[in-house]
Amino acid sequence: MIKEIYLDNAATTKVDEKVAERVCDVMLNKYGNASSLHKVGQKSKKLLEESRKKIADFIKASPSEIIFTSGGTESNNLAIRGLAKVDSEKKHIITSVIEHSSVLETCHDLEKKGYKINYIGVDNKGIINLKELESKIKKDTLVVSVMHVNNEIGAIQPIEKIGKICKNKGVYFHTDSVQSFKKLDIDVSKVNVDLMSVSGHKIHAPKGIGFLYVKKGTKIFPILTGGEQEKNIRSGTENIPGIIGLASALDVKIDKGKIKKMRDWMIKELLKIQSVKINGSLEKRIYDNINISFYGIEGESLMLMLDEAGIFVSTGSACASNKLKESYVLKAIGVDKMYIHGSIRITIDEISKNDAKFVTEKIKDSVKKLRKISPFKLNLKK
After folding, report:
1. Of 228, 249, 270, which residue constitutes the final position of a domain?
2. pTM above the 0.90 mark?
């Protein structure tokens, strides 16, 4: 039987066993609707508010500032569309070219409705240009939306500096913290963030749960209607098991230093391969991310070879339609086409040295095999 080595934690994480046990207990024994006035419902209501407070305390917020959602995509939509519904006069939004599709597609949709969107560029490390961002803020700017950590290359944006700029200019600042929550310290009172999106399944909680932090005084309108749950901002019966799972996942212990040390060792080993490059910053990078390109091969082919060996990674070179498409993130940081299509993303959790060695050796071997059958005339560099 082939041992499975899961290295796609930026896509989703395995639910922690203790978290799963807690979720199952709630599903089976505390199943009431938190809006019901009877005892069964009020037990769920108590759990809901205890979880809300625990999460709020974790980011130094007030419980009233936590709005539970189905995850990052809904939170991003609620933040941007919710603000747009409040102030119809301000029709200018600033974001970056490397945001998650849930932000970019929302902005594209608003453009069709008359909004002006500025897509700020990044340098070859994936870091936003602060001077360009500041220069684009105008009187009718509604919100600046810049992610904390990029989901492909792991680049960490200077959100404290962005928040300060936005505060000084009097515009809202929204950050997608799906890839940074619990990995980086976030104190919302210090980063001057008005709205922050989080998803549970990136931190060993179940899928289908997340929250939007909405700073006190920030008014947004709902994008879902039909009920009065979550301060009338997010209608729908609360997902109590998921919320309990999200709160419980805050207790999952992660040895960040150990993960980073193993990540750095793997990068060092993979860089021994000819004509290979790490995409994005090595310094301003989340500790579990390796985005690497191999010249002259297809990332999809490498991913499938690794899959056969029980190693699970992802690639940004193909879209949902299964047609090869350049990663807009790698394109934005200036990666050459021959490298873009040969890219894979490895996002690790705690991994043993033996497993890390097996993975790096299997990648070396697979890249060698793929280059032998490549239709391109390769001029490999050391």
Report:
1. 249
2. yes
